[in-house]
Amino acid sequence: MSTKDEPVVFIVDDDASVRRSIQDLLSSVGLRSEAFGSPQEFLDSKSAGRPGCLVLDVRLPGMSGLDCQRQLAEAGVTIPIIFVTGHGDVPMTVRAMKSGAVEFLTKPFRSQELLDAVQQALECDRLTREKLRETAELRNRFETLTPREREVMELVVSGLLNKQIAAELGIGEHTVKIHRGHLMEKMKADSLPALIRMACTLNSS
Question: How far apart (Å, rounded) are the C-alpha atoms in residues 18 and 13?
């Protein structure tokens, strides 16, 4: 894995000693980290799109952690967030978790609690990125289909037989078979269920 692709744990806390201690902890288990004194500093760094996760203090002067979470969501950034706070309250926790936070830790938290949350968040980020890559690859394959092959694919995944597709499109059954063979090959689908799964992924993305 190149350094560029290696996940980074981003830390946003206005307390320099907290930032340092979290960085030391992460470094002790071989994790890379970058620290910021405010959400704005983090947002300005354009780091949010990189692989990794965000350890974010909730109560900060100026923009709060929850405001930062909202801004990232509005920008379509899916970085997993672990909130930390010295004044955790239930409504805030619920709001943060409902908005997609991975974990909510109240200071002082145990080192292992944070490390467990970070590992969970990094795995979550890895799976999300893998899914996005797979969907992008599927979309690229779909783009190689001719308009007729796309029509045939739509009817195949809707459950029609070759004979019915031929009648629907006003073409011969043999021609349907040829189109079907080509589209299965181009989509790299080795079975009808595989093609249906691909169609579902494309429709939901």
Answer: 7
